[in-house]
Amino acid sequence: MGNATSYLLVFVGGGLGATLRHLINLTCARCLGTGFPWGTFIINITGSTVMGLIAGYLAFKGEASQPWRLFLMTGVLGGYTTFSAYSLDAALLYERGELGLAALYVVGSVVLSIAGLFGGLALVRQFA
Question: CA angle, 32 as apex, 73 and 81 as ends, to 5°?
Answer without folding.
Answer: 15
